[in-house]
Amino acid sequence: MQVSLIVHSHRQQLGPERRFPVPANWCPRPLQPTAGTIRAARKLSFILSAVGELAHAGADIWRLAPATQTQYIMNMKSAVIPQIRVEPELRAELESVLKPGETLTDFVEATVRSAIAFRRVQTAFHERAQAASEEYHRSGVATPVEAVLERLQGKLDAKRTKLGR
After folding, report:
1. Domain limits of the chain?
2. pLDDT tens figures, 130-157
3. What is the C-alpha to C-alpha distance for residues 143 and 125, in angstroms, rounded to an integer?
């Protein structure tokens, strides 16, 4: 399978797009659409445009490829979460719930992201509750329980109607 790399020059007009043959293992991991990989892709695009200009000028493009790939990999996942020691039973239970093709690292990363999102939602909820409590103590004005329950019931009914239940 022949793969080509298309380079567009951003610095000067070099004519139409340039195509360079790319080894099949040049970029072993597909880009995932996260903020870090988008930044890495932009940086990689900039580097490749410079490499394309050098290649157009007669430079050996594949002497620069390892440096370019290193630049790409360095901007990816570089932080490490500390290892933890667990009982063999917990490890076995964890491995038993992995989806096909899912690695332990994938599972831990997804779990950490989920826990972070949960903590952010929880913190925001507590901040709103604290602000509401302070407002009540400051003003002495509160929303009657019946009104709150009616609003919640209305939201529940609307969601049930939307889902067709």
Report:
1. 3-74, 88-163
2. 999 999 999 999 989 999 999 999 999 9
3. 18
